[in-house]
Specification:
Elements (H helix, E strand, L loop, with lengths): L1 H24 L29 H7 L3 H7 L1 H11 L4 H8 L5 H13 L5 H10 L17 H8 L5 H20 L2
Helix pairs in contact: 2-9, 3-5, 6-7, 6-9, 7-8, 8-9
Length: 180
């Protein structure tokens, strides 16, 4: 009986450690369907070129709007219309003021959807404390969330639903542009 306890404990320990590794890392590289490239060096970064279903979410989180705009001329054209800018260079400059590209696209949609007084430049000023290209100087000193900026610029708007609507529109724009 004692002879069976030691092998049983060893086998149990191995199974426990193996299953926790499997749960943390997905499938081991030898199993069918494994991607093989997991971890920090995989496709989980902010690269817009990751492809597949992750392309739009990576573009939304991208902190390098220039590369996203250069590779998506349809999206750049649409954003020029939403923000009132006249060139991709101006778009890149304005977009770089935001925390990420998704926030920039959502702000452009909110400004257009609500016809905000001062337009995109006013929203950008409130959210980033930076002046949009071609706009008068931004005097705001405290950054605001998209919702707070909406409340400030249009007190009658439902900031929560407008933020959500704009994020959905931004996601759709980026998804549509990555397919072309």
């Amino acid at each position: 009986m004692k002879r069976l306890i030691v092998p049983f404990l060893v086998l149990s320990t191995l199974l426990f450690l193996g299953s926790s590794t499997y749960a943390q890392r997905g499938r081991p590289s030898g199993t069918p369907g494994a991607s093989g490239n997991r971890g920090a060096s995989g496709t989980h970064g902010n690269s817009a070129s990751a492809g597949g279903a992750h392309g739009s979410s990576n573009a939304m989180a991208s902190t390098d709007p220039g590369s996203v705009l250069e590779h998506n001329s349809n999206l750049a054209t649409k954003l020029e219309g939403l923000t009132g800018t006249t060139s991709v260079t101006d778009l890149k400059t304005d977009a770089s003021a935001f925390k990420n590209f998704g926030q920039f696209v959502a702000a452009a949609h909110v400004a257009k959807n609500l016809n905000i007084n001062g337009g995109f430049a006013a929203l950008m000023c409130d959210m980033t404390t930076k002046t949009a290209v071609g706009a008068s100087t931004c005097t705001n000193t405290a950054k605001m969330s998209l919702g707070k900026a909406i409340q400030t610029l249009d007190p009658h708007a439902d900031a929560k639903s407008e933020s959500k609507k704009a994020m959905n529109q931004a996601n759709q724009d980026i998804k549509d542009s990555s397919g072309s």
